[in-house]
Amino acid sequence: MKIKTLILAAVGGVVGLSGVAVTSPALADGEQFIPMLVYRTGPYAPSGIPVANGFRDYYKLVNARDGGVNGVKLSFEECETEYNTKLGVECYEKLKNKGAHGASLFNPFSTGITYQLIPKAPVDKIPILSMGYGRTAAADGRVFEWVFNFPTTYWSQASGFINYVAQQEGGLDKLKGMKIAHIYHNSAYGKEANPTLEVLAEKYGYDLTLLAVDHPGQEQKATWLQIRRLKPDWIFMSGWGVMNQVAVKEAAGIRYPMDHFVGNWWSGSDADVIPAGKGAIGYKSATFNAAGDGFQVHRDIVKYVYGGDAAEAKKNNLGEVLYNRAIVNAMFTVEAILTAQGKFGNKALGGEQVRWGLENLDLTEARLKELGLEGFTRPVKVSCADHETGGPIIIQQWDGSKWSMVSDWIPTMRDIVRPMIEKAAAAYAKENNITPRDCA
Amino acid sequence: MIYREAGQFKTSYATDQMMFPILQDRIFMILVIAVAYLIPLIANEYWLQAVLIPFLILSLAAIGLNLLTGYAGQLSLGTGGFMAVGGYMTYKITTAFPDLNVLIAVLLAGLLAALVGLVFGIPSLRIKGFYLAVATLAAQFFILWLFNKVGWFVNYSPSGTITAPPRTLLGIMVTGPEATAPVRYLVVLTFLAFFALAAKNLVRGRIGRSWMAIRDMDIAAEIIGIRPFQTKLLAFAISSFYCGVAGGLYVFFYLGSAETEAFDIALSFSVLFMIIIGGLGSILGSILGAAFITMVPIFLTNAPPLIGLSMPIDLQKHIEVMLFGSLIVFFLIVEPRGLARLWQIAKEKFRLWPFPH
């Protein structure tokens, strides 16, 4: 009997599996399909949930408030990746051909997944917008035609951090002999900032210590023991998910002066500081978007997406740092589609057309104001050769209940970073037999 | 009835020693292989790329671990580390010698993995069981640490990521982004078919028998003239070779680019679970186990929308994990000796069918 039931179960399973390949939810022909790689579970969920909610709410808002992009409705589907590259690739394969024209573009929200998708993008003709993450070298649009990482990159950010330290200490010449530590997630993502910090260390003469924290980052006792011994003047951190919470707690535990502890823009969200309680007060992080829910776009989201239910919106992370960053990313996506529509007409577009839109994106201050995002982020103008734009960063600080801006927009060191990017891109091109295109 | 072997006489030693002595088995195997080779005609890219290619590659790794753990009785948690050696060494070899055939690079990387396996197999002479598992765990952590730490292994790429460069085989692109999924599938399938056959023959012969003797009782094996040191080390070397080849394929034919995280401890565990669920000491079991571990979660992810259920994606993921866990428990209770044993029981039932007694 047992065998019979097992065989039946197996047959049922096979029949079910074979059905998977053919079915997909029906999508209306005229809709613009945007795939969403999200991580609402796993060790990175504290960072992933506000991001996923931000994307979803902004797309919903565009559909509800504006009736889509020039009347073309956005359709979107989530796929759970757990921030795991293998699952991310599976999701990519599943979603890339959905919709009448395939996926518009991918926002992987994971440097690891971005690395996997970069070689696939030119083959599948689907652009990737890795907003401020992913492979920094992709900023060279001559080699990486299909990848965009504006408004700014890890390398630019690291140079911005050094600029900020110099501002605080009273000039770049004061950096000499100073001890700076970089605590990073031991992955492609965390290592990104290292080369820039090393080059700048040589140039400005500060002592750089690199401290790796292994995935997922719950165990950091050894790292902080080293910090206690080293007593660095400034700490820069590239963390993500649960690693951030642990690091902030540990720093508070050893009474490190929190205002000299600066996270990168993935290490400064609400979920990162709340678990450390009062100890986290004074912790800083870089960012390129404002915190808080006081902008017109938030009022619109509450009105159109949540039907006026502000409490429900709050429960869905409205106004948190990462939620806001997802809004920026979703806004870039929609504006790129809008730009592409300007050339190809007001209809649902394919990946190639959206790529043109990304490359010709010119987001002005006036347009930001129109979108209810004035002061929320900075204008961006992308070009063929420059997919990054090297935008400035701003430093925010946690006061125990909310993040607030404590600096002006800090310029990045374009003159140092851009040649490094071009060198890395040329190396990539050589290794993969890519002929850089001519952007002149 | 269907599965009747009456009338099939074995008239020579050769027929008596065949891998599949029963005609029906032979026909079935040929059919399975033929279907496997024809699948690219009907399967879409999602199926090939996201389901079948990882399944085949992990089957190869599971066979490798099964040789060591299932046949030679040496518990190992270093699979991910040995696979990483294969992956990173294939990268080093193929970037250093771009004209060398990438398949040869994979095999050479497998040999290097075998060397590493030999080194980490040395403690197996002194320590056994769970203690050995802990010693092999050292391989897992040490190897990944090394690849993370030393820039030479990744050609000093700033992010520590290795990317499979484009390589051709007989004029067809087999690796890199331009290589199509069907081509990569066929290459991987050929690797698996060849090495599964080799493993099957290996375990039927002198070497396999000496492994099993060591596994069942090492003192007795020593008394009948099997040298434990050489036998165990050989098991480590061959097992690591399989894992190394699987690792090379994993990076070059599946992921396309990888960092050490792709080979973390979770991979070692999942390969171990594959052979436990599939059946220790069975080549077929390795493949069945790999199918179970790689395909069931994908099926569970895709099932709810299929039957028209729409639920939040996080809830769906949690349900998937719970169902997957209970399925593992269920299969282990129903048949602790794995899916391969279930298959065997099914075959025996078919032999007697329709007269069960």
Give the helix/strand layout.
The complex is a heterodimer of chains A (440) and B (357).
Chain A lengths: L1 H21 L9 E7 L6 H21 L8 E7 L4 H11 L15 H7 L2 H5 L3 E2 L17 E2 L5 H16 L9 E7 L2 H4 L2 H11 L2 E7 L7 H10 L3 E5 L3 H12 L7 E3 L6 H4 L10 E4 L8 H10 L4 H6 L5 H24 L6 H9 L2 E2 L1 H6 L9 E2 L12 E5 L4 E3 L8 H18 L9
Parallel strand pairs in A: 1-2, 3-4, 5-6, 5-7, 7-8, 8-9
Antiparallel strand pairs in A: 9-12, 10-11, 12-13
Chain B lengths: L12 H4 L6 H20 L2 H27 L7 H18 L5 H20 L7 H21 L12 E2 L3 E3 L2 E4 L5 H24 L1 H11 L1 H6 L4 H28 L1 E2 L6 H14 L4 H24 L6 H22 L4 H14 L5
Antiparallel strand pairs in B: 1-4, 2-3
Structure description:
The complex is a heterodimer of chains A (440) and B (357). Chain A is α/β, with parallel strands linked by helices and 440 residues long. Chain A is built from 17 helices and 13 strands. Chain A folds into two domains: 28-152 and 293-390, 3-Layer(aba) Sandwich (Rossmann fold), CATH 3.40.50.2300; 154-287 and 392-414, 3-Layer(aba) Sandwich (Rossmann fold), CATH 3.40.50. The radius of gyration of chain B is 21 Å and the shape is globular. In chain B, strand 2 (167-169) and strand 3 (172-175) form a beta hairpin. By secondary structure, chain B is mainly alpha-helical. Chain B has a single domain, classed as ABC transporter involved in vitamin B12 uptake, BtuC. The interface between A and B is large, with 53 and 48 residues.
Number of E strands of chain B: 4
Strand order of the largest sheet of chain A: 6-5-7-8-9-12-13
- Label the CATH architecture of chain B: Orthogonal Bundle
Strand content of chain A: 5-15%
> What fold name stands as the CATH topology of the largest domain in chain A?
Rossmann fold
CATH topology of chain B: ABC transporter involved in vitamin B12 uptake, BtuC
